[in-house]
Amino acid sequence: MDIQPLICTQPADYAPIAAILNAVRPFRTTSAELAGERARWPEGSIAHLVAARDEGGRLLGFAEAYRFPNTAAGKFYVNVATHPASRRQGAGSALLKAIERFCDDQGGRRLVGEVSDTDAESLAWVQRRGYAVKRHAFDSALDLVGFDEAAFDGVVEGVVQRGIRFFTLAEAPQALQALYRLYEATMIDIPGYEAQSFMTFDTWRRVLIEGEGARPDWVFVAADGEQLVGVTQLVAHQDHVYTNHTLVDRAYRGRRIALALKLLAIRAARRHGAPYMRTGNDSLNAPMLAVNRRLGYRPLAGQYEVVLDLAAHRPLGRVQ
After folding, report:
1. Structural domain span for residue 288
2. Can you tell me the distance from the alpha carbon of 275 to that of 269, in angstroms, rounded to the nearest whole number?
3. Residue 58: what pLDDT?
4. Could you tell me the strand order of the sheet in which 110-116 lies?
5. What is the 3-state secondary structure of 122-182?
6. CA quadruple 9, 10, 11, 16: dihedral positive or negative?
7. Residue range 123-143, pLDDT digits in tens
8. CB–CB of 204/177 below 8 Å?
9. Which of 53, 57, 61 is nearest to 1 (CA)?
10. Are both 230 and 288 inside the same structural domain?
11. Do 121 and 258 share a structural domain?
12. Can you tell me the mean pLDDT for 205-210?
C-alpha cells in the first residue's frame, strides 16, 4: 500500500475523491462542487491531501487536513474516507496516521472530524483511535411540493406591521457591508461555532455571497429602519435548495423574524421549482429547531463531531 500526497489542480482531479464520498455518504457530490468549494477557501488556508493506493495504483481512500486563517489556534479539520470495498485492509489507519503527522508538524493540537450518525462501525473505529464525540449535527428537509403555505398566512405581514421591512440583496446591493457586520455579530451564537476571528469581508463575500449556487435575490434581509436585524440565504444544489444560515440580531429574537425570513425563502424556492429544501441543524440549537419543526422540516441522517486532543494522543511525545 502506498500513501502519497494527492495533488488536485483541476475539477477532474477530484473525481476519484467524489466517487469515494458518494459511496460512503447519504448525499451526493461532484468533482466540480469539491473543486469549487476549495477554490473559495480564503488565502492563507493550510490544506493537505493524501491518498492510499494499492499496487495497481487504484485509489483505496484519502485523507485531508485543513484550517483557515481565522480557525481557532491549534485546530485542524480532518477527514478520512475509504471505499467500502477497501476497508479492513489497513488503508484507513495508514491515512489517519499520515494526516495526524502532518497536523503535528504544522503545530496542530486539536483535530476535529465528522462521522455519520448511521455509521456505528466508523464511529467505533475513530473512538478506538482516541477521538471523542463532542456534538451532533444533522440536516433537515422540507417537502416544498406538499408545503401548506396557507397555514402561515399573515406571519410575514404581521412582522412587517410591527416595523420590520424585508428585502433581498439584489434589491439593495449597497447593504453588503452592513450585512457582513450582521453575520460577524450573530454567527458566534451558532452552537459549535468557534474561530479566532470572523472571516474577512472579501472572504465572506467570495465564500457565502458569491459562492457556487448563490444568488443576490436569494439573500433575504430583515431591517428595522436602517439597521439590519436578520438574514437567511438560499443556495442552489443539483436537485434541491439549501439554507446556508438564518441569523437574527440578539435584541430582535423572539419576534418571529426568523420564521418570516424562512417563509420568504420557501416562497422563492417554490417559484424556482425546487422539490425540497435542506438546512443544517445542531442538536443544541433549540430555537431554530423549533422554527424548523413548525415549518414541517424532518430530520435526516447527520454527523457526530469527533475531536482528538493531539498532545494527549502522543504517548512518546510525537505522532508516529
Report:
1. 148-295
2. 8
3. 86
4. 2-5, 46-53, 59-67, 75-82, 110-116, 298-309, 132-143, 276-282, 241-248, 227-236, 214-224, 165-168
5. HHHHHHHCCCEEEEEEEEEEEECCCCCHHHHCCHHHHHHHCCCEEEECCCCHHHHHHHHHH
6. negative
7. 999 999 999 998 888 889 999
8. no
9. 53
10. yes
11. no
12. 90
Buried b (16+ CB within 10 A) or exposed e, 219-243: bbbbbbeeebbbbbbbbbbeebbbb
Indicate whether 314 pLDDT > 90. Answer: no
What is the residue whose three cell numbers read 457556487? Answer: 212
Q: What global pTM score does this model have?
A: 0.72
Which grid cell sits at 236?
A: 442552489
Domain assignment present for residue 319? The answer is no
Q: For 174-206, how does the pLDDT look when each residue is reduced to its tens digit (9 = 90+)?
A: 999 999 999 999 988 877 676 667 889 998 998
> CATH number, domain at 166?
3.40.630.30
Compute the chain's Rg from CA coordinates: 21
209, 107: one domain: no
CA distance 18 to 110: 26
The answer to whether the beta carbons of residues 164 and 223 sit under 8 Å apart is yes
Place of cell 495504483: 57
C-alpha distances in Å from residue 20, one per residue of 13, 80, 204, 245, 261: 13, 10, 29, 28, 36
In a domain, 127, yes or no: yes
pLDDT number for residue 42: 87
Q: SS3 for 66? A: strand
Kindly state whether residue 320 falls inside one of the protein's structural domains.
no
- Share the mean pLDDT of the chain: 91
| Same domain (yes/no): 123, 217 | no
- What is d(CA 312, CA 74) in angstroms, rounded to the nearest whole number? 13
As a whole number, mean pLDDT of residues 237-264 equals: 94
How far apart are the C-alpha atoms of 116 and 123, rounded to whole Å?
Answer: 8
Same-domain status, 272 and 189:
yes
Which whole number is the average pLDDT over 82-106? 92
